[in-house]
Amino acid sequence: MEFFLGNFIAIFLHFRNVDVEDKILLVRGILGSIAGVISAFSSSFIYAAITVLVSYIISIPIVVFYFKIKRNWLVFGKGSLTLAIAWFLILVSVYNVFG
To answer: I need a labelling partner for 19 at 20 to 30 A (CA). Which of 3, 13, 46, 98 fits?
Structure first.
């Protein structure tokens, strides 16, 4: 799963026609979805909140070093809501299916 997802992200990030802002949204959406799946199987809300925070913290170096962006809004703000919404929707969906 990680190998496939890593290849998918690497292929998408090398598209030439896609804006950097859209790539940031996609990366944070994918990380939010992964955090949602992990959170659905966690035993408490604290672990679920830690999972989404860790995925946000992981996304910051990806944005800074891979995309070489220095603007604070793009580094810290762009896609944060996308990450949170993806996390919550996947969390609820997976919990309803498997819970």
So the answer is: 3
Cβ–Cβ under 8 Å, residues 86 and 33: yes
Q: Which of 79, 89, 23, 21 is nearest to 55 (CA)?
A: 79
In the 8-state DSSP scheme, what is residue 29?
H
Task: Give the number of residues written for the chain.
Answer: 99
pTM of the entire predicted model: 0.82
pLDDT tens for residues 57-88? 999 998 888 888 888 888 898 889 999 999 99
Contacts by 66-74, CB closer than 8 A, 24 or more apart: 66/13, 67/20, 67/23, 67/24, 69/20, 69/24, 74/20, 74/21, 74/24
Closest CA to 33 of 14, 50, 18, 55: 55
